[in-house]
Amino acid sequence: TTDAKATADAVAAHGGQVIVPAMEVGDLGSMAVFADAGGAAIGAWRPGQHRGFGLIAEAGAPTWFELHTRDYDTSVRFYKDVFGWNTSVMSDTPEFRYSTLGEGDDALAGIMHDTELPEGVPAHWAIYFGVEDTDKTLERVVDLGGTVLMPAEDTPYGRLAVAADPTGATFRLVSV
Q1: Would the pTM of this model clear 0.85, i.e. be above it?
Q2: Local mean pLDDT, 10-residue blocks, the chain (176 residues)
Q3: Which residues pair with 98 in a beta bridge?
């Protein structure tokens, strides 16, 4: 964001909840943390000396960000209104509702109507990390005390898996 306080104000004005108001983080930048209108936690960062990560869609780097929500329409509208996202509907059938931030190869994130979220699991953002070999990476996750939550499977988007670190934080892997 170019202005963490303005973003936090927009969050509150569009049905979200500010959890941590905008604050300076030394000369690194400023941040705010909030819940979107569908209840998913997310943060905003205005870069200062710390610009953020510089790699994307490579092994060892984030490759995709995906919101899983029960309140799809409200969530899509929230991100359009608060961040000015240009969304593109990838699918809008009862079985699969999905929009992306951007379109085609330029898409940066997705919003999924997740009708299979277990009871008690809130809406949330998932991060996909690129790996050279999904199966070998899952073996390493287990060696380091993590857990495989969904074994690797081939998809049109690469070989995907879901794991958790030793503290229970979940993440997704995708071959790049």
Answers
A1: yes
A2: 95 97 96 97 95 86 96 96 94 94 91 93 96 98 98 95 97 96
A3: 91, 112
Phi, psi of 159 (to 5 degrees): -85, 115
**What is the spatial distance between Cα 121 and Cα 82, in angstroms, rounded to a whole number?**
24
Specify the pLDDT at position 142. Answer: 98
Task: Retrieve residue 128's tokens.
Answer: 């996909």
Residues 6+ apart with CB under 8 A from 102: 86, 88, 108
Pairing type for strands 62-69 and 17-25 reads: unpaired
CB burial string 17-39: b at 16+ within 10 A, e below: eeeeebeeeeeebbbbbbbbbbb
The residue written with tokens 């983080």 in the block is: 25
Spatial CA neighbour of 39 closest among 117, 149, 129:
117
Q: How far is the C-alpha of 110 from the C-alpha of 29, rounded, in Å?
A: 26
- The torsion of the CA quartet 87, 92, 94, 95, rounded to 10 degrees, works out to -80
* Vertex 153: Cα angle to 151 and 159 (nearest 5): 110
